[in-house]
Task: structure prediction
Amino acid sequence: MKKVLPVGVILVAIIAIVLFSPLFKIREIVVSAENGCNVDKNDKNLSQFIGKNIFYINRPNIQNDLKKTFPCIENVSLEKKIPNKLLLKITSKKAVVNIDGTSFQATADGLVIEAKNSDKRPQLFLPQNTPVVLGQKLQDPTTLSSLAISARLVKTDFVPTNIRIVDNTDIAVYSSTEAVVLFSSLGDPNVQVDSLQALLAGAKIDPSKIAKIDLRFEKPVVTYKQ
Result:
């Protein structure tokens, strides 16, 4: 009569095979990137995993390390292809404005990137002497508020063409109909843009007749063209 191994012994043997077999050591890392954020599969954040067991790979660690190394990354999707391949799909941050006087654009969090498909984005006029360096982030709080506003306006009926920082806290956004909306960097960009959209959606007049909407106060102030 054949001797049957205990279930526990069989499980331990299976686990040992999975954890220590060279079959499950990572041999290849495939990286696909969208929108031009170039991440080399030979980057040290990735190459360090070659030869390691695929079941030991921690997704959040890889994602966080890559985002720290490559500020242009918006999201990292990682798939373990058993037995020994990692597939990474990287989505880049998208520009929300063109930076006037330069060949650069800026993302919603202030990262300066090379200009691509610039026609559909508003022109941002920065305060004088603002340093604009490719690959670095804009730091001025009011500038960052203007970028957050621009990103939010994409989902509204207001089409911005130019954005100007009027003073330390005021932001003027001009539309294709020559209307101007005044925002404050002291307020929540989401709240102010939502207020603008609610006003436009509820307006009973032609939006092209609006000259100015001031959102710096508790209640929006609307001025019409003469």
Remarks:
- The first helix runs from residue 7 to 20.
- The CA atoms of residues 19 and 53 lie 7 Å apart.
- DSSP finds five helices and twelve strands in the chain.
- Helices lie at 7-20, 44-47, 59-69, 141-153, 189-202.
